[in-house]
Amino acid sequence: MSSMALKLLKPFGLTDKLNLAALIKALVVPMTGILIFLFIWNIGARNIHTSLGEFPGPAQVYEQSKNLLAEHNRERQKEAAFYQRQDDRNAKKLAKNPDAEIKVRAYTGKATFIDQIGTSLVTVLAGFFAASLIAIPAGIVIGLNKTLYSAFNPVIQLFKPVSPLAWLPLVTMVVSALYVSDDPMFAKSFVTSLITVSLCCLWPTLLNTAVGVSSISADLNNVSKVLRLSWLTHVIKIVIPSAIPMIFTGLRLSLGIAWMVLIAAEMLAQNPGLGKFVWDEFQNGSSNSLGRIMVAVIVIGLIGFMLDRIMLMLQKKVSWDKTQELR
Amino acid sequence: MTAKTHLELTGVDIDFPTPSGPFKALSNVNLKIERGEFVSLIGHSGCGKSTVLNIVAGLYQATKGGILLDGKEVNEPGPERAVVFQNHSLLPWLTAYENVELAVKQVFKNSKSKAEMKEWIEHNLQLVHMDHAMHKRPDEISGGMKQRVGIARALAMEPTVMLMDEPFGALDALTRAHLQDSLMEIQADLNNTVIMITHDVDEAVLLSDRIVMMTNGPAATVGEILEVNLERPRHRLELADDAQYNHYRAAVLSFLYEKQRQPGEEVKVSALSEKKTESDKQAQNLQDTEQSSAEQNSEEAA
Fold first, then answer.
1. I need a surface site. Which of A217, A234, A261, B26 has the fewest CB within 10 A?
2. Under the phi-then-psi rule, with left for phi > 0, alpha for psi from -120 to 50, and beta for the rest, what region is B90?
3. Does A225 touch chain B (CB under 8 A)?
């Protein structure tokens, strides 16, 4: 390895001779894997012909991702120009007549790919938090009480495998019936997506929390009894810390499901987001569509991966057992 | 010592429900313990020693009979009967200090100020010689140190009775000896009432004022009680050649091997009471058989 490369790697603690093997393991091997995948993808794509042209290979996908970014930037410029014009117009009006009524309108351009990513991320996080807020406390209560567990377990098992697509029509109808407001804080589509996501990603957290809570060691329970800890202190000091690993296992499963469910829900319900982007491109049917959908596929994958890594980092931070290997 | 009995177990029976009907683990256990007394419970595995301790702790309910502590009936767990568990049972996410703090906050929340609590926690950790590592978590300290913290936690509750369930059973011989010495010092200082379960004949004789030997289960009960009238402070090296001490050891061993031999167990007991060296080996054997039979007698733990 050249001295230049060594200098570059210094901040990562990878300069030691010993770490060279680790470096190869950490970088070279995964890179090789990715290269092999790109090669197979490229060959495979050239041999698949659809009515919309050749299946997009890595090159087209790269091209389309640049296009999507450029479209986004153009749209932003248009938006900035629109607000600039509006402000100028209003300023002129006010200069003529200080009491003049001025109108401020929001820009109504079409949502770009980047905007859709933002919408999807906000929706998935909101849905996931809503689900966690219900699932963790419910899991603790159910886990601590055998009778409640037996009572609710059949219901949980029944709803756990239900697909989001089955819930979606019901949720849509219920939201339109109940969420009636002249000036809604959230768009109806947002609420529908959020509830669908929550309904589907509730279960892993709920079950894992319940299992984690019910498998606390009998000795720790005895300590709590001897100390006569109140129910709340018992939960905070003993139950939650010892169930933390299981709770996080559940949360990570839930977030993964939430992300998958959201894309499907957006696609079917035409709610704004990445799912809608994919569906729109499919309906659009231009020669670029497949490439643009493939960009979305990769972005969806990357975001899902990043969300899981963030949860893992959180778990490492919160976990008391630093020796436990987390992956 | 008051005329009234400090701790009294009267006619204690306990049945555990099993699929094939109730299992009688203890039958008519009677025991009186004075304030400041150090009592060991010894017996073969599965004879219900831990069950007795758990009933006194209030973690189990006696089916018949009951327990009086200073004239009051015991029927739930409480910090005045602190327990030192065999496997330390420290909360792994808290440091040694925080583990003791949890107990201290619970017991003294209305009677001690923050500063007093801090001092009291540190004092108790000093008692067990753990002040140098009090901000370490259980996974960062050795087994013996964990057990010391467990004892500090129990002591910090200022218990009327301290219950110790094989506190040194999982430790190596040297660490065990150190902790036994520490415990004797603390006991001499604080004069706590202690009930300790042990498998170790030497430990029982060295530490106890009285040794309660239990018969084998099912329906186990108190077999014999041996008064140990050795002067305190006791030193293990001096006692090793003490005739009185060896007499006590032999008495316990002969109870365990001759009178309460486990069914189907073949043990040579001929030369037991004559030869000291022989009884040394026996003591070792006892511990081995104890461990091997621990699993088959796990009903009482359930």
1. A217
2. beta
3. yes
